[in-house]
Amino acid sequence: MKFIIRILAISAGLGALILTGQMVYSTMWGRWEFGHIWSFLWHWPGKLLFALFNFGEVIKSPPLELAVSVLPIIAPLLALLLAKLLDRPRLDWFVLTLIFPVMLTVLALMKPGRASVNPYGGALGHFFAAWRGKYCGKCQKAVPLSSHAGQRCPFCGAYWSYERTVQSR
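User: That's the sequence. What structure does it adopt?
Assistant: Structure tokens below.
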């Protein structure tokens, strides 16, 4: 099963690479300006929104246009599934492939790793945990939101005998 998902991810990532290359080439044909950078970053999320809001039109389109419309829907979902199977930060890879589906190829070629102890995983997950506000009383690092009294800190190993809510202003 993992092998099939990796093959799908590599295929989708390479397809996105070809389609992105075509988009960059057509953009570079003119003069490169700041607006082109914005359109490059908006390219795949824009395709996703178009596909979601014009689903009836998308289904009737030719195969290449259909692939361009379906790829931004498939890419983040494949990334989520593959990141879970490879024990990688799911939220990071979901957002990354939402903007750059090409990254599916990179994810598919990675070896199984170890995601952060944070339930969200990765850099974005650490940000969300810190933003939501659960910290270890000893090392002051953001800990999973599921942490509670009677457990140990995943970073420093401190035992939590109680929880305390701190109001910040």
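The chain has a mean pLDDT of 76.
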